[in-house]
Every structure is written in C-alpha cells, then in structure tokens.
Amino acid sequence: MATIQDIINSYKDKPGGIIEAYHAVQREYNYLPEEAVEYAARVFGISAAQAFGVATFYSYLSVAKRGQYIIRMCESAPCHIAGADILIKTFEDELGIKVGETTADGKFTLELTECVGQCQGTPVITINSMPYVDMNPEQVPAVLALCK
Amino acid sequence: MAAEMRIVLRNADQINPDKIEDYVQAGGYKALEKARSMARTDLIAEVKKSNLRGRGGAGFNAGMKWSFVPEAPVKYVVCNLDEGEPGTYKDRTIVEKDPQRLLEGMAICGHAINSNQGYIYCRGEYPYVVDLLRRAIDQARSSGVLGDFNIEVRMGGGAYVCGEETALIESIEGHRGEPRFKPPFPGVSGLWDKPTVVNNVETFANLPDIVMRGGAWFASIGTPSYPGTKVLTLTGDVVNRIPIEVPTNTTIREVIFDFGGGIRGGKKFKAVQIGGTSGGFIPESLLDTPIDADSMRNIGATLGTGAVLVMDETRDIIDIVTRISKFFEHESCGKCNPCREGTFRAYEIMKKINKGQAAPADLDKLALLSRVMTKACLCGLGQAAPGPILTTMEHFKAEYQARLQI
Asked: Predicted ipTM?
C-alpha cells in the first residue's frame, strides 16, 4: 500500500489538486486519516483548518474511519417513492447497525446519500461507488454476500 | 405519436464509446476541423444564430455567453458534468454512450474563445465515467484530433451545490464548493480569475452538429425561442424509465404517455416534477405544455435538467415535498443566511405539516419564507429550493389543507 505522503506528493504540482489527492488517499484507505489532512495542508500550502474545511465539505470525503465496503443508499425523491425507507431498514437489520455506523468487524459502513444518477432503476444503492439498481429488500442478503 | 429526434444521442448504441475510431468513422471530429477553418467571430456568430441555450438549467444563449469573453493570454473551457439534480441521468447517458462528442464540443468552444485548456468537472458519484473520459482523452490526444487543446478531468465530492458554476470553479481550485458573488461572471473572471466558459455536457454535445449543419438548421428544430432537442430522463411511476431525446416543442403529455408508456400498474396520473428536485410540480391540467424552457416558465415550472419524475394517484405530495425539503437543508452550503436558515426552517415546517401538526399560520409562514428565499438567496440552489413548495401549495392546495390541525 502506497504511503499517504507518496499519494499526496504525486498531486502537488496539480493546481487545486488537493481534492484529487484526497480522492486518491480514500481509494487506498477508505477515509482521510488526520495525518493525511495535515500533510495535504503542508503540501498545498494552506492551513490545516482550510484543509480540514475542504475535507469535511464534501460528502464523499470522510475524516472518520470507515469500513471496507461503504454502502450508500439513495434517499432522493425518486428513490424515496420507490421504497428507499424499507430498503434502508432492511440493511440496518441485516447488518445490525444504524445509518452512519460501521460493523464491529470493520467490514461494512452504512451511509445515506442523495441522488447517484441511476434513476432509471430506483431504488438505488452503491457499494464502493458501484451502483446496484432496482433493489428490493429480498435482494439485500445476496448483495451483502457479494462483499467477500 | 411524437417521434424522438437524436442529435446528441445520435451515436448512442451505434458505436463503441471506448473506441475513437468508431466516432471518427461516424463523422466525428469533422466539425472541429471545420470550426478551426472558421474565424472565431464567425464561429461564435453561427452558434449565436443557432440560439442554442444552455442545457444545464439556466437556459442562457451559449453563443452569447462566449461572446462576453474578453481577450486574455489564458482562458478556460469548463464542462459541467456535476449532474446532481435528483432524477437526472442525461449527462451520464450522453458521455457513457459517446464521450468523444463531448471532447469535440469542448474543443470547438476552445477555438471560439481562443482557449487551449479544458476541464471536465465530473461528479464523485460517477467514478466509472471519470475512467471512461480519461481513456477517451488519452485516445484523442494520441490520435492528434484535439491539436493543442488539452482536457483534464476533475472529480467532485458529492456536493449538489457544485453544479452551480462558481461553486464548481471553487471546487476545481481545490476549495470548499461555495458559490461566489456575481458579478464578475466567470466569462470575465472565472477559474483562477481567468475568463472561463462553463457549459453543460449537453450544450457542448450539440456543437458538432451545429457547426456541420449550420445555426439556421438547429434554430428550425422544435420551439423557436428554445430550439433543438432536449434529453429527458424518465423516472418514478412511469412504465418506461428511459432517457429520450425529443424536439423542444414536444408536450409533457407526449413525454409521459407516448414515450413513457403512461403510468405503471394501470394507475392514474397525479403529478409530474420536471427539471430535477428543484423543479415545479405540474398537475394534469397543464400537461399539454411544450417542454421548452420558456413555455415551462410560463406555467411556473422549469425545464431545468430535463428530469421527469412521474407520480401516480397513490403518491403523497406532502411526504414527497417534505423529503425534497430535507434534500435542500442537507445540500445548502451555508454561505448565505437566507438559504442556510431558510432551507432549515422550510424543512422544519414541512415536517410539521407532514405529521399533521401544523396550523394555517404555518402555511402562511412557509409561503412567505419561500418567496423571500426566491429573491434573497445568493445562488440558484436557494432561489430554486422553494419551487416544489410553492407549486404544490398552488396546484395541490387541498393536500396541505387536509393535513392541517383544526
């Protein structure tokens, strides 16, 4: 696994590249450890407060540790009317956690999201950003089983 | 029955989007060649003549926007692929089916405004589109079709407000995506304070055909004041949940009942929200309105991004608008007070109504708050956020009344 410093350094010549660097760190670590934010601040010549401000502005960036598989459930209006509430409840029951939490084994994190742009197949979830469309509650165990 | 007319989706499912050879075989990059043989002012005049209006929602004349860009050593072409309006999947569809068309459109704009650097800001929800675009750019670069025009893809982070052009610019610069005060407009001072044209994917994707066939051809399609086609994305309680591309004089009824195949499960129509989650709700009585931006504005609705969310007779309008209010409360960036506080209070009152705990005075407060936000918010997010509330209070008043605590 590349070190946080190496990842961030590779974006240092890109104007405004801090967000790209954060994405790259998250691809390896699934979240932004505190040292990543502090190091990015130094590399991009901004204060730690500003670097933290950027990291916490965007819902796809997380400064809290997350699981190996990040399950996001869309709750925007098209998914809402297609039964997103029941789907969310089913995931919570199957995993034994609430939205915003991570399973004790560090495998799954459950998050809500707004529209992911797959509204031809509502309701939609994403697992590590890959969409699963036309979800129904009965499919939840099978989808979780895909995450080895 | 009304028929589709494909311009931006012409190559969809006809070519392999991962092969630039296919695009070139289908006539791709001839328009760029032609554009580059034209004087910049003539090219801009041709695009102006086409009356192509921005397809991201605001509907500003694209050629006019370009003509405001002053002479400067460095300028930028920025493509808005942030597509955050719930119910919208048109830009994803256009790019997934035919990415080279977008690159060609951006390069045409690059020639028109004399810029050699383009950025595509793609929403963080579409990492697979980012990958596809990067492959497409690599192919275009190695085959030399783009000449000295460079394009870089930047990925957003899941912030709806970054669809607003100045917030998008802030985000490319590596900042929190908070909108700027306008003026200056990006055309004069945008990315890194340089003149910048920001257009939507669909706007750029129309350019190759406008250049090849001429502005007059494009201006003759659909409704004269908002000519051309529009890609619409159908979702909700409609039989066919598909993307379609239709002339702008197509009516909402044709969209839902001809292309969409009507309402699912043999149920009756209740409402449709067009243009994304900030769009107005439209009742049955207004379905014969053409979808062009001006006709939609005349009925108090929007064309917006072209999302079409259909709701059947069983749907609870109040519950849906409450959910939409939560969306705006969540997505407000917090920079300006009317939006930060307004979206919070609007959601608070909608929850109260939804629970059957509101009094008539709450409706008055909600209506007043909505009108204030429309005028006082800094950017389009806050200005448009009350749209669903105001239009449902108008067209579905009985549903609000029935929920009040007597």
From this structure: 0.96
